[in-house]
Model the fold of this input.
Amino acid sequence: MNRLIAVIIASQVFSVGSVTAKDSSIQSIAKIGYHSQSDGFNGIDTDTTGFIGFLERQTSEDSFLSFYGMIGFLDEEWSTNGVSIDAGDGDVVGFGLKFNLKSSKVQSFSQGLEGGMPYFRLGWERVKATASSTLAQFAANNGVPLTTTSSTDSGILLGIGYEKSFEEFGIFAEYMKHSEDTFDDSSITLGAFFKF
Done:
């Protein structure tokens, strides 16, 4: 009888252990980051800031290759001679692939994420830019009225970043290089993520 009880208890312990191990594997990561980039033209400084979200899904359980989707809401500000104006908004959507780099000692994505891993991102993005009424008025006052107040462009996105988890949550930093057809500039995104 005691042996039977011991076998039942042992089977329950191993069952719980196996469920815990399965739950610890990662299949998806949701990220939210603060995006910032600066540029300039004709003596005007431009600053684009806002929030970008990523949903990354491993191609297979604990794989180092992921598909991702991206959405962002950005604001652009122009400044010159100490005067700043709200230039407009930018809505961003995109998708592509992300590949994490690991050392030879790392056996799984979960293990690598706990120690921290660099990654590369290759994708496509579409940006819809809408000029603000302030910018339209500013342009009209200076004799160069805008012929259109919105435009949509798309292009290739390249990124390199680093991410590290702490329990269920983590942090990441990423440098992105955008196409000439979209932002024609590089950017930095800093943020946090949770895994599930």
